[in-house]
């Protein structure tokens, strides 16, 4: 059975990914708060971690290494929009910094710390949940207003491309999950979290055919970024 790590596993897209992958994999469900009890099963290992806490991430990775666990897939899903997730961020350096730490530095910290565990798998992969808001190709007034989020996802795309070069045995992609009905996406969004999770799992199932370091839409089309 494959071993998967999913960050931000307690709600939104991460929770649906966790439920879906746990049907046939062991999921290390990383969350900083409580995981919903009604979604728990024997395939889900809840690990309480704030991904910006590097010491906690390193400890988790060391435990994987000590037990010689092979991780087949890391999904860097956890992310934030800025402020209290409902506020437009214009000039707020502290909030913008937190967005960059959460959306770029922390996912790469998790990736780097679990690289040894990934390399123990036959065909390891890393998927970073990015956003179309982080593409130059789709830059508009709305994305510009939310510049810390947009710029952080653009930086995440570059970091994933760099990780793909630095770790050529780990198939690594960025994915736009769609506009999804979550706390971040809001009630008017186009997709249910379960639909987005299904699409992301479908992408993973053909990850060998995809170009490592590139960005894909949830529907499988390569994105111009
Ligand atoms: N929804 C959309 O339309 C949409 C579109 C494009 C991209 N995305 C991306 O999709 C991903 C998932 O977002 P979502 O829509 O599911 O949002 P969400 O419902 O707001 O969930 C965000 C998740 O990230 C976790 N998280 C944030 N900071 C964390 C930290 N420091 N440590 C650990 N966990 C942390 C949250 O945990 P807490 O519960 O503890 O806060 C929560 O589980 C994000 O990367 C987001 O940027 C979403």
- Number of beta-strand segments: 7
Strand content: 15-25%
The CATH class designation is Alpha Beta
Strand order of the largest sheet: 3-2-1-4-5-6-7
CATH superfamily: NAD(P)-binding Rossmann-like Domain
Radius of gyration, in angstroms, nearest whole number: 16 Å
Give me the oligomer status.
single chain
**Which segments are poorly predicted (pLDDT under 50) over 5 or more consecutive residues?**
none
Q: Estimate the mean pLDDT confidence.
A: 95
> Which cofactor or ligand species appear?
NADP nicotinamide-adenine-dinucleotide phosphate
| Largest sheet, strands/sense/barrel | 7 strands, parallel
Q: Globular, elongated, flat, extended or rod-shaped: what is the shape?
A: globular
Tally of individual domains? 1
Distance, first to last CA:
35 Å
- Please bin the fraction of helical residues: 25-40%
Q: Might you state the CATH topology name? A: Rossmann fold
Number of helices: 7
Structural class: alpha/beta
CATH architecture: 3-Layer(aba) Sandwich
Secondary-structure element order, as H and E? EHEEHEHHEHHEHE
Give the arrangement of secondary structure elements.
Blueprint: E1 2-7, H1 12-21, E2 25-31, E3 44-48, H2 54-66, E4 73-76, H3 93-113, H4 115-119, E5 125-129, H5 141-145, H6 147-166, E6 171-176, H7 193-205, E7 215-217
Parallel strand pairs: 1-2, 1-4, 2-3, 4-5, 5-6, 6-7
Helix pairs in contact: 1-7, 2-3, 3-6
Bound molecules: NADP nicotinamide-adenine-dinucleotide phosphate (NAP).
NADP nicotinamide-adenine-dinucleotide phosphate binds next to helix 1.
